[in-house]
Amino acid sequence: MNFEQLRTLQAVVTSGSINEAATLLYKTQPAVSMAIKRLESDVGFNIFDRSGYRLELTAKGKIYYQKSKQILAQVSQLNSLSESYTRGEEHEVKIAFESTANINEIIKKIVPIQRKFPNTELHLQGAQMLNALKLLAEQQVELAITPWNITFESAGDFESKSLGPLNFQLCIHKNLLKPFNISKPEQITAKILRQIPQLTPIKLAFDMDKTSLAKQLSNSIVKIDDVSCFIASLNGQLGWGPITDFSWTSEMEENLIRFKLPEMNSEINAEIRIVKNRTKILGPTAQAIWDVM
Fold it and tell me: Which residues span the domain enclosing 286?
């Protein structure tokens, strides 16, 4: 048994087939098949059940695979640590920010770190629709600051810590309510909202609770993938939808109303978290940013 065989095993399990694993590993299909057969020969039992249409792990194979994942994660972490020690201070640190985060407060915490490590380039990348977490999972950034749902843990081997609450309420332009003779938030009902276009995200990088933000209520839907476009749509009377406390300003109160709707669990309480890959050892600058959050 060697690490290359374990990496091949992981590729086959995660992709679901020998052929797809070969593509991921830039190897031929026979080479991948041979590596798995040699691994099974080395361990002395069948890791895969080949009786069905697709390869399935045997009972022993499932246990072996879980242990092998732990070993590969430790090796990856060790390699990352070696690289960190070798290169010293990072040349650059990339951080992806979701637009729903309270970026002003986060930047205040980053300023002293930038002064301490002036030779490290900070790349602050804005993201929408949970793509900050997707960038982190693909290791295109070192840190992600994003809304967090417990289900996101399955998207990667993440470590995270809370930066504070992320509160949503529903919002609508007052003029859209005039035909219904409504002037107070408590007068708004699902029956009325069904007659007004609903603003929803186009497509999130990771699934969220369909009973809250993405639940369709209106007969007419407008899909948007940008926060500034969303706010402009609210102000322009295009429709109604959720807005975060961070995006809400006192100036909005003149034309917009925020409200709750029991049918949609419309006061949505979530978290903003800073997230990193558990197996990736951060360099000194990125680690300092993580520590100060």
Answer: 89-165+271-292
